[in-house]
Every structure is written in C-alpha cells, then in structure tokens.
Specification:
This protein has 17 helices and 23 strands. The protein has helices spanning 62-78, 96-102, 118-123, 130-136, 141-148, 151-156, 192-206, 219-228, 255-267, 279-282, 303-309, 352-362, 365-375, 382-387, 394-405, 414-429, 453-467; strands at residues 11-15, 51-57, 83-89, 110-114, 167-173, 175-180, 211-215, 233-234, 243-244, 249-250, 253-254, 274-277, 293-299, 314-317, 321-324, 329-332, 335-336, 338-344, 407-408, 431-432, 437-438, 440-442, 450-451. The protein has a six-stranded mixed sheet. Strands 12-7-13-6-14 form a five-stranded mixed sheet, with helices on both faces. Strands 8-9 form a two-stranded antiparallel ribbon. β2, α1 and β3 form a beta-alpha-beta unit. α16 (414-429) packs antiparallel against α17. It starts with 10 loop residues before the first strand and ends with a helix.
Length: 471
C-alpha cells in the first residue's frame, strides 16, 4: 500500500494472557452465518505470565489501527493468562523501512508493511527470519504460516536465502478507480478522457468544479502507467540500481509517448478538473467543497473513508485506458499485485518471541476475516478467502477484476522510489524542478496543448540514470 506517513497518537491496550488452549476464535464483524473456523495449531502454549510490552505499527488509517486493537482484544480473550501491553501507532505500510531507519531504537516490535518493504529490511538486518524461531522456540511456526496462506503470499515473504521473513496479512495491495456515483456513472469510466469529460459536464451542470485526483508524488502509481504500455522496472534487494526501460521503446511504443499522455491529461483541456497531489492531500479533498474530488485512483484501504465522504455513494471500477498519440492506440493502466505482511523486529531479544506469537495471531483465519470486514482487504489465508464473498465489497471485487484485466508483480528496491517519485511529480506538473524546464511548449489548459517531447525524453533519461547510476 503506497500511502504516506501519518503518525497518530499511541493507544495502549492492556492484555492479560496466554493459555495453551486450541483457539476457536469467533468472527465478530460482518455476516458470520456461513463462516466456520477451521482447526489451527496454537503456538502460544507456554508463554507464561511474564509482562510483555509490544509496539505495533498498524498502518496509517484509523480502520487499520482499529483492526489491530480488535486483534489485541481477541488475543486477550483467547489467552487469558498472559500479561501483554500492546500499543499501536499509525505508520504507513509504504514507509515502514524508512521510518525504521530514522530511529531503530524506537522501531516497532511488530509492523504491518507492504511486501515491497521486505527486501530492504532484510538487507538492513531489521527483521526476524521465522525459520530460526520455528527451529528453536516456536515449533511448527513456519509450517503453519506456509500451509494456511496462498503460494504467492508466501513467495512475497520469502527472502533470497529461502527463509520466511513475515506473516502474510492481506492479498489486495493494489489500486483501482473510485468514483462518486452521485456524480459519475460506470459508463463514464472507460477511459481517462471520457471520465474527465463527464466530470467537466457534471461541474457545468451543478455549478461546481469537480475534480479527479491522481497521486502525484508516487512512483508506485507511475509504475502502473508504464506497465500498462509494456514497460518495466526491476531492482534486486540490496543493490543500488534498478533496471528500467521507461526511456526506451517497447514493441513499437516509445516511453516519451507514454509519459506525454500523462502530461496531456494533467495539463491539457481538463486541467481545471484534474488534481495532482500527494495521496494524503487528495484524501482531504474528497469531502464536499467547491473543488471536491469525485474520482480518484486509490487502494482498498481508503474505501471506508471514501464511503463516508460520499455518503455511501462510492463506486469502484477497473482502471481506465489512456491514449498514446504516436502509437495511435489505447492501453489500460495496470496495478501492482502486492501483499501486506507483518514483520518482527529482530533486535528486541526480550520481545521477539512474544512479538512473533502476536503477529501469528494477528494474521490467522479469523483476523484476516476481520481485516476484510474492517479494512476492506482480501485474505491471503486460503480458508478465509473461501469464507468471504468478495462481491459484497465493491473495491475488492473491482481489484480482483483489475487483476484479470492487467496486473503485475512489482519487484523494486530502495533505489526506485526517489527517482520515480520525482518523475511522477514532474510529469503531472508539466515541468522539471531541477532546472525548471517546461514539458509543455504551449496550450496549457486547452485541447491544443503542445508538448516538448525532447524535454520529456530528457526527464525520462535523467530518471533512468538516477535509477541505475552505474550506467
């Protein structure tokens, strides 16, 4: 999930307990009439009654924080003899490795993060491999994690050494198109042009300035733009390079044509109906106002917030197509097909075992159903996936459909983010900040917009060089 840091106040949850019973956790939220809890091994036996204090980075949204608090209360109920204090903090799943590096002594005992954070945290020696715990102190832990989760999610938490470094949390870390159904219809959303034309028409009809919001400072979304046209970026863990062909040509499509299509949409005839901003700022503009955002590309984690902002009139759709002028064809934006995972701080010798046991509980069958209901994220647990009905949740249903239309497994390292984030901001704002070069020659805000493709090519070349400085 690629959203920016949003620190919230710490909230403590006192827990008492760890029993050796075989847990049969009830599912408290959502329709539970057809849900049954399969037998699962309980790795908590023998914890004892020692006092344990854990800090959990829960994700940035209130729903994510509430989910962890709920799991903590369930843990207390199922393990009544333990003496745990669990505190939660709101830290974006996309910034965990960076926030960890800022102050290792204040890093979480357990953190929920996007799977693309794992390679950096492995190479930085931040997180505990579960194989070691499974062999020494929690027998069967790795087998338990592997047997209950999808093959793809296990691959996401497997390091280059073949060891398991995390607990799969959810399998819907991607993005889709959200829209206000009071303003737009599903038939408006086939392409970016048709959607923006509908937003313009609705604005003129209602005397408003409705807008579409595109996250402008994230290479995560930009990667989906280029992937849609057949381009790629790949970075191996621990390396200081990313192999990227955005500035080249793939199957007759030129990278500058792909980049130019984004510049035209953001700076052309629909400029007054397009907002480019960081995702957290976009989310502050979805409420009613003179420039209300009525459609945006976002992840499932913000579904509840949009539902509230749009008074329940929230629709979700696969991503639109965009037009390549030079190639004269339409291509569909794609989404990464990623995961969220829970990782354990290996530096905390006194709490690492307890942290792993809570992380295991946080990601079990019942907890993943809770997450589906509370945070709108699909399970990786294969039994939980069978127990929920994705069609009852518009955003998860749309994301699964998007997976079929176009999705990719993103494999990048830390080197990717700075350069790609910067390029996304440049394209959407129509200029490079390094030397103030305009990417638009003339016609800003009109259908006759003229791009400076030489400048766009230079911006792509600079980005690719920054991604791979060795070449």
């Amino acid at each position: 999930m690629k959203a920016k840091l949003c620190l919230l106040a710490l909230a403590g949850v006192m827990l008492a307990g760890c029993g050796g019973n075989n847990a049969t956790t009830s599912v408290l939220s959502g329709d539970t009439s057809t849900r049954s809890i399969p037998a699962w091994s309980n790795p908590f036996a023998g914890i004892g009654t020692e006092e344990v204090e854990l800090l959990v980075w829960a994700g940035e949204t209130q729903e994510s924080i509430d989910f962890v608090k709920n799991a903590a209360a369930e843990f207390k109920r199922d393990n009544p003899q333990s003496n745990y204090t669990i505190k939660t903090a709101g830290v974006s799943e996309s910034s965990v490795s960076g926030d960890w590096a800022k102050d290792k002594d204040k890093a979480a005992d357990v953190a929920i993060c996007a799977d693309d954070q794992i390679p950096t945290m492995i190479s930085s020696n931040y997180i505990q491999d579960l194989d070691q715990l499974s062999k020494k102190v929690i027998p069967g832990l790795v087998d338990n994690v592997k047997s209950r989760n999808s093959k793809e999610s296990i691959e996401a938490v497997t390091g280059p050494d073949g060891k398991i470094y995390g607990f799969p949390v959810s399998g819907t870390n991607g993005f889709i198109l959200y829209y206000n159904t009071n303003i737009l219809k599903a038939s408006d959303l086939g392409s970016f042009d048709s959607m923006l034309a509908a937003i313009k028409a609705a604005s003129e009809r209602d005397g408003k300035n409705y807008r579409f919001g595109f996250p402008s400072t994230s290479g995560w979304y930009l990667d989906g733009w280029f992937h849609g046209a057949g381009f790629n970026a790949t970075g191996e863990p621990g390396e200081i390079k990313v192999d990227c062909n955005w500035n080249g040509t793939v199957e007759g499509v030129n990278g500058k044509d792909v980049a130019g299509s984004l510049v035209k949409l953001a700076q052309g005839q629909y400029k007054s109906y397009w907002t480019s901003a960081a995702q957290n700022l976009i989310m502050t503009q979805v409420n009613e106002g003179p420039s209300q955002i009525v459609a945006t590309i976002n992840g499932t984690w913000n579904y509840k917030r949009l539902e509230k902002a749009w008074n329940g009139k929230v629709g979700a759709s696969i991503l639109p197509t965009f037009h390549l002028d030079e190639a004269n064809k339409d291509v569909r934006m794609q989404t990464p097909r990623g995961f969220k995972v829970a990782v354990v701080n290996k530096a905390r010798a006194k709490t690492v075992v307890a942290a792993a046991k809570f992380a295991e509980y946080l990601t079990n069958f019942a907890s993943q159903i809770h997450r589906f209901d509370m945070v709108s994220e699909g399970p990786t647990n294969t039994e939980a996936d069978k127990a929920v009905d994705a069609t009852t949740n518009p955003c998860i249903d749309a994301l699964y459909k998007q997976y079929k239309e176009g999705a990719f497994v993103e494999k990048v390292n830390d080197q990717f983010w700075g350069a790609s984030n910067g390029l996304a901001d440049q394209l959407l704002n129509g200029s490079t900040k390094t030397n103030e070069t305009n990417l638009v020659k003339s016609g800003v805000g009109t259908a006759d917009i003229v791009l400076d493709y030489a400048a766009i090519q230079k911006a792509l070349d600079d980005c690719v060089h920054n991604l791979n400085p060795q070449e």
